[in-house]
């Protein structure tokens, strides 16, 4: 089933979006509701809060005085962390129990205000962010909840910034228009992305790039999209001893590219990628093995094919094609993917030449019914030598490629 993290700053209308998704058929787990449950009278977390913050945050009826507690923690990051240390484990356990009971034929939406702040978005297939400018959120909080402006701004300042949320957002959902506009936008996301993505996951259907190839002008959102995939894959494969990198044309600024995020997963031994647990972890993250692509073309011509063997996966997101190339760390294919990317980043003339080659190869696929990838192979045979020369000249190393 598809897992969706839904988040947004206080006053953004996240709960309204959650209600719309529920009407469309999603199952909603509401972190705020869970947070209220774990601090009800008689719960261990409430007793711990009283011990930590004093009797002033406990009402005369023995329940939590939320306003009193909020006045303490949302102006003091250290006190907020103390509260989260008490409530966090209890909330996490109850959320895991609730989400584990979601029917397999439902889209599983986790409505979580601090999804970005806590880094929990990496557990989800997609992150949806409900976005409203801060000043408008302040206005709403003052008007609808009776907050003082200073308190509203303090609450907003204690949460993630819009830029931090945007980096984590697969779906950016503006909510500064009318209710009807919001409902239409949610409906489009549901029918055009969430439902098809869920179908692909449940039926094991990987998304393939469209043919003929369509090149796009450089897109400033590609690095963030690549970073999200890298983070999710690294999380999914934690404990497998992997290195994960965004490679390919979308990882290079100012370069035309197919709208495809290419990710390289490095493993200590290629045989590690053939373990059942490895493929199962990637499948849970939404990436399915493609046995039709197990070798890159060796370079230089005549090189041993074994050094260019790989495993290949495709994602299931209909709105973002993702290809995973699993290669053995230190193998020629692994090293070349990183070095070629960094050579293009470092050499403007090389980027220009490669852009021209990509356009030529795309034209071959369109006009001559050829294959885009095969049409570029003569270029790569020549370029392989250029990259090796650059490695020697620049001092580039595989171990230092992240720096």
What form results from the Cα inertia axes? elongated
Please give the largest β-sheet. 5 strands, parallel
- Mean pLDDT over all positions: 94
The termini sit apart by 37 Å
Coarse structural class? alpha/beta
Rounded to the nearest angstrom, the radius of gyration is 25 Å
Strand order of the largest sheet: 2-3-1-4-5
Helicity, as a percent range: 40-55%
Count the E strands. Answer: 12
Please give the structural blueprint.
Layout: E1 3-8, H1 14-24, E2 27-30, H2 31-37, H3 44-53, H4 66-73, H5 77-100, E3 108-111, E4 126-131, H6 134-145, H7 149-157, H8 162-168, E5 171-174, H9 179-203, E6 215-216, H10 222-236, E7 243-247, E8 257-258, E9 260-267, H11 276-285, E10 287-289, E11 311-315, E12 321-328, H12 332-346, H13 348-367, H14 372-375, H15 377-394
Parallel strand pairs: 1-3, 1-4, 2-3, 4-5, 9-12
Antiparallel strand pairs: 6-8, 7-9, 10-11, 11-12
Helix pairs in contact: 1-9, 3-5, 6-7, 12-13, 12-15
